[in-house]
């Protein structure tokens, strides 16, 4: 549910979205078959005290997958 408010500033208008997120993911695979990567999600809500919602690194292979982070 994304609430969109209309606010007037002088002659122009400003549209704001209260609940926005930006997600970055990077992953790869080595020649040996080991997988690796990282992910983080940033909140666009500047009024909250916590900007990063999710942050973690991972590594995996035939032995399973390990996650490090939040």
What brief labels describe this structure?
mainly beta, 0% helix, elongated
Descriptive report:
- The chain has strands at residues 4-9, 12-17, 21-29, 35-43, 52-61, 64-69.
- By secondary structure, it is an all-beta fold.
- The strands form 2 sheets. The chain has a 4-stranded antiparallel sheet, with no helix packed on it.
Brief characterization of the structure:
By secondary structure, this protein is mainly beta.
Mean pLDDT: 80
Query: How much helix is in the residues?
Result: under 10%
Widest β-sheet, arrangement of strands: 3-4-5-6
- Please identify the structural class as seen in this structure: mainly beta
Q: Measured on Cα atoms, how large is the radius of gyration?
A: 19 Å
What about the largest sheet?
Answer: 4 strands, antiparallel
Quaternary form = single chain
- Terminal Cα separation, in Å? 25 Å
Q: Which overall shape is indicated by the principal axes computed on the Cα atoms?
A: elongated
């Amino acid at each position: 549910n994304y609430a969109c408010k209309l606010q007037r500033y002088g002659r122009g208008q400003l549209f704001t979205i209260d609940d926005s997120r930006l997600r970055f993911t990077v992953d790869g695979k080595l020649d040996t078959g080991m997988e690796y990567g990282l992910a983080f999600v940033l909140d666009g809500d500047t009024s909250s005290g916590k900007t990063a919602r999710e942050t973690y690194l991972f590594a995996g292979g035939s032995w399973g997958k390990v996650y490090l982070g939040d």
